[in-house]
Design a protein that fits this description.
The chain has 602 residues and is of the alpha+beta class. It has helices at 68-71, 74-80, 140-145, 147-150, 154-176, 217-225, 263-279, 294-301, 327-334, 351-363, 389-399, 414-431, 506-515, 520-534, 548-556, 586-592; strands spanning 34-46, 51-57, 60-66, 86-95, 110-121, 180-181, 199-201, 209-211, 230-238, 250-259, 291-293, 315-316, 338-346, 370-375, 378-380, 405-412, 442-449, 451-454, 459-462, 470-471, 483-491, 494-501, 541-547. It contains 16 helices and 23 strands.
């Protein structure tokens, strides 16, 4: 056993009385030498004649021994120490006897015999247990309220350190490929990029507002016009939208842009980036990463963020049921809908669970769900009696059904059937252990539609953003047919990045904005600076933005990005640690020329 090799040397600090060595660096090479250590009391065990303290710092834990024969006055302090007290000690590194070696920690073959010690700060009793790697049962609200204590826990420390290594690897790879790191403004103007802006009132120009950037999208295009050709930034971004496990109002993304490129150039450069970055987390990315057309992703997986680590793909059963008389299927087919199904594999479920699946599908928006088990050439299902032997055989063949396989079928619009079966597919795979442990599935989603119809707004909306280039000709009479030169990267069913080739021609940009209901006057008012820049010679350019928080969460094996953010918000957008958001005093509002209304009771 040896101390970890990746612990950095502690910089020499002249006259530092607290420490000259990290706790995690105690190892064979230090045996017989005197060291100074400092950190927190992770655990204390008082055996009467001896006191054992596990000392913790950022690099790990090492055992200290307080012995009345060696420790002198420090022995009395050893009896008084409590968990999370801050201490500094001086002592000698020795090997532990074979029967006392602790294989659970990297320094477990050595200990420090304390000669002198000082308590630098006493700690109140923590509201939850800090030492140990076990599952923390403390509620998230309490963990966020005392986040500075939660961050002392080893899993949290490891997650934050992994994040730092990932960011460092991003910079290494991009610097090595000729990219320049450039900062862009945090106070800018409001532009539509798919979510609500956070607005900041201007004191000097009352009645006007800055917006916090949803992304550096327009600025990075301006940097391409400016001739920097390869740009990147670890950018702070802000979106005023509802939260969930993988979303925060303020978040971090890796933003990059390239000039004189097409889709292939951008994708290839980013595959090299992903391989280099994820290697620091021990994750191998096989290149090239598979590509799936957007329409195929919806058809096969029900989502444009498919988890490709397992099968259970959606199948269109319309061909097998083209002549069916079963009214549920017939109504969907005749109504320009679909009948789709998944093969959930061989399993036996009680009726109560099958009824639960029906309820689950209905909660997701389906009118119902047909279940069936293949038996012989037919089915065991309440629906079997409504279908002919030929239809049953056709569905079995389409779904690749074998004896005992559970088949789940939805008849509805294509959008509903895809959403319901796609969601059930991923839920059931996790529920039934169909996802191979430790597996990683990556894919690019390509060949996107440029626009989609927004029922709520009654107009066309971009699937990515208004500055995405279109492939071929743009027919204003048929916006649905327009294709985007866009690409998203998906990892284990989560979109970790998305980008596109950008529109470089101001007239083409104005045509797309017009399709979005933004006329020339409004376009000039909101995007005039971009349109003007494009008139001065814009190179072909494109890029991508990655959700850094999401990448770090997936790399650490966490289900929530809150576990890889030092000080995150709750699901309601609040910060239990600082109390944000909070009212401000009337004087501040007067200086800004605004007033606040009391919130209406909900």
């Amino acid at each position: 056993m040896s101390a970890p090799a990746d612990i950095p040397d502690l910089p020499a600090q002249r006259g530092n009385e607290f420490r000259d060595l990290w706790a995690g660096a105690v190892g064979a090479g230090r045996v017989g030498t005197e060291v100074r250590l400092a950190g927190w009391v992770n655990r204390r065990r008082d055996h009467g004649g001896l006191v054992f303290i596990d000392l913790r710092d950022r690099t790990g834990v090492v055992q200290l021994v307080f012995d009345p024969d060696d420790s002198g006055a420090a022995f009395a302090l050893g009896h008084e120490l409590r968990s999370e007290d801050v201490i500094s000690v001086r002592g000698t590194v020795v090997e532990r006897s074979a029967d006392t070696v602790n294989p659970e920690i990297a320094t477990g073959a050595w200990e420090v015999r304390v000669a002198a010690a000082a308590r630098l700060a006493a700690a109140a009793t923590p509201p939850f247990q800090i030492e140990g790697r076990g599952r923390n049962e403390t509620g998230e609200e309490a963990r966020l309220r005392y986040r500075y204590l939660d961050l002392r826990r080893e899993p949290m420390r490891e997650a934050i350190e992994l994040r730092a290594r990932i960011v460092r690897a991003m910079r290494e790879q991009l610097d090595g490929e000729g990219f320049i790191e450039i900062e862009t403004p945090v106070l800018t103007r409001s532009t539509p990029e798919g979510a609500r802006d956070f607005l900041v009132p201007s004191r000097l120009q009352q009645g006007s507002f800055y917006a916090l950037p949803q992304s550096p999208q327009l600025f990075k295009q301006l940097l391409m016009v400016a001739g920097f050709e390869r740009y990147y930034q670890i950018a702070r971004c802000f979106r005023d939208e509802d939260l969930r496990a993988d979303r925060q109002p303020d978040f971090t993304q890796l933003d990059l842009e390239m000039s004189f490129v097409d889709e292939e150039d951008v994708i290839e450069a980013n595959e090299r980036l992903l391989r280099h970055v994820l290697a620091v987390a021990g994750i191998e990315v096989e290149l090239p990463i598979p590509r799936i057309a957007h329409a195929d992703a919806l058809a096969r997986y029900g989502t444009d963020r498919p988890d490709v680590r397992f099968g259970m793909e959606l199948r269109d059963l319309g061909g097998a049921l083209a002549e069916t008389g079963f009214r549920v299927f017939r109504a969907a087919i005749d109504g320009d809908g679909v009948v789709k199904g998944i093969n959930a594999g061989r399993r036996e479920l009680p009726r109560s669970e099958l009824d639960g699946l029906i309820a689950e599908a209905q909660e997701l928006g389906a009118k119902g769900l047909v279940w069936a088990f293949r038996e012989g050439d037919g089915w065991r299902s309440p629906t079997a009696k409504f279908l002919s032997d030929v239809e049953l055989a056709g569905v079995n063949a389409e779904l690749g059904a074998e004896e005992g396989d559970l088949l789940l079928i939805v008849a509805d619009s294509a959008a509903v059937a895809n959403r319901v079966l796609g969601t059930l597919r991923t839920r059931l795979a996790g529920r039934w252990g169909e996802i191979p442990p430790g597996s990683h599935g990556f894919c690019w989603i390509v060949d996107w539609p440029l626009l989609e119809w927004d029922e709520a707004e009654g107009g066309w909306a971009p699937l990515h953003h208004p500055f995405t280039a279109f492939a071929g000709e743009l027919d204003e009479g048929d916006p649905a047919a327009a294709r985007a030169r866009a690409y998203d990267i998906v990892w284990n069913g989560s979109e970790i990045g998305g980008g596109s080739i950008r529109i470089g021609d101001p007239e083409a940009q104005e045509r797309v904005l017009a399709l979005l209901g933004i006329d020339a006057a409004e376009a000039e008012a909101r995007f005039g600076f971009l349109l003007e820049a494009l008139r001065y010679g814009a190179p072909p350019h494109g890029g991508i933005a990655y959700g850094l928080d999401r990448i770090c969460a997936l790399a650490s094996g966490s289900d929530s990005i809150r576990d890889v953010i030092a000080f995150p918000k709750t699901a309601s957008g609040g910060d239990p640690l600082t109390g944000a958001p909070a009212p401000v005093d009337e004087r501040q509002l007067r200086e800004l020329g605004i007033s606040a209304r009391a919130a209406k009771p909900r």
